[in-house]
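To the wet lab folks,

You asked to see what we're planning to order before we commit. Fair enough. Below is the target structure as tokens, and below that is the sequence we designed to fit it. If anything looks off to you, flag it before the synthesis order goes out.
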């Protein structure tokens, strides 16, 4: 087996390797790695790598070493790195064989940097139909990780538009119909402009009431969209943009990445519903098959105490239909602790 570090090749070469892995997602592309490296101010080293065996690309892993209070850990922005994605086209027993070796390699990286813990999560869009045995359970638990799994929501865009609309919650349908007062325009690689991404930044910061790390890095979203790995949907009224949704995508999957609105400009009619519905239609027409609307949070767990806002956002996302799937996560402590 050969391990090729992200730092030792070009972004173009990295993406060529990524493109050879069945069912891999946007979260492993050079575009997203570049964003992550810029976003987190705690990263001290990028140890991401590609795995080859007999010159065939087998897997990819996105690994960052971060420093928090003088201690090193494998994480991203204090949260989880994407777990190694092993080609979904391989037989289950072969995937297991590679997983053991790759996670051992990650352990060696952690030891080199004297990390106190490793935080990994398995990308749900890598197994959207829940048919790949290896990804139907939290494989991290076999290798000393404690379970911190959650849930997320996927929409199967292979359904007809009539079926997709029928799956939407009744109240959401009403808000979609009412939202037709807004003129919605979707921007992709052929029509996205710097002016429009600047407009996203303005709306996002006005909505948040401050400059955020996400809005500071708005230019990355322009690159995502222009490279065919994203889109932006703007809603206008009276010729003014008052709401925006950003989506990232890769091959047949897409992810709901960001939303902002100018609440005082909405004339009491929600805009988020019509934006989401137009995005769903656009993605379907574009050939995307699975759309992840986002994490589902119902209440407290032994490792998380969500606030009411997060729970309400989850409920909003579920209103667009789809189905709920596991979002497998794990933490491996390397300093003798067994919990936070």
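Sequence we intend to order:
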């Amino acid at each position: 087996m050969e391990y090729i570090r992200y730092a030792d090749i070009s972004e173009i070469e990295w993406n060529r390797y990524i493109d050879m892995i069945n069912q891999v997602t946007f979260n492993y592309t050079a575009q997203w790695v570049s964003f992550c490296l810029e976003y987190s101010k705690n990263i001290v080293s990028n140890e991401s790598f590609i795995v080859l065996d007999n010159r065939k690309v087998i897997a990819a892993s996105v690994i960052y070493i971060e420093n928090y209070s003088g201690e090193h850990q494998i994480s991203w922005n204090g949260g989880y790195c994407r777990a190694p994605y092993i080609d979904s086209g391989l037989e289950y027993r072969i995937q297991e064989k590679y997983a053991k070796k790759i996670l051992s390699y990650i352990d060696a990286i952690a030891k080199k940097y004297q990390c106190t813990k490793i935080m990994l999560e398995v990308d749900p869009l890598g197994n959207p139909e829940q048919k790949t045995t290896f990804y139907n359970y939290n494989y991290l638990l076999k290798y000393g990780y404690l379970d911190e799994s959650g849930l997320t929501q996927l929409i199967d865009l292979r359904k007809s538009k009539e079926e997709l609309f029928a799956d939407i919650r009744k109240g959401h349908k009403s808000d979609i119909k009412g939202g037709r007062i807004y003129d919605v325009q979707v921007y992709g690689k052929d029509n996205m402009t710097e002016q429009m991404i600047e407009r996203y930044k303005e709306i996002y910061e006005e909505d948040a009431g401050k400059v955020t790390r996400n809005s500071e890095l708005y230019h990355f979203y322009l690159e995502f969209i222009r490279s065919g790995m994203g889109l932006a949907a703007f809603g206008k009224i009276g010729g003014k943009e008052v709401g925006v949704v950003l989506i990232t995508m890769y091959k047949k999957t897409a992810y709901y990445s960001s939303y902002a609105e100018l609440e005082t400009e909405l004339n009491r009619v929600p805009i988020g519903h019509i934006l989401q519905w137009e995005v769903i239609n656009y993605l379907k027409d574009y050939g995307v098959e699975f759309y992840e609307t986002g994490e589902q949070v119902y209440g407290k767990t032994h490792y998380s105490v969500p606030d009411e806002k997060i729970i309400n956002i989850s409920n909003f996302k579920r209103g667009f239909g789809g189905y709920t799937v596991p979002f497998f996560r794990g933490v491996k402590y390397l300093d003798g602790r067994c919990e936070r």
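Structural context that might help your review: The domain at 2-152+326-333 is CATH 3.40.630.30 (Aminopeptidase). The chain has two domains: 2-152+326-333, 159-288.

Thanks,
Computational group
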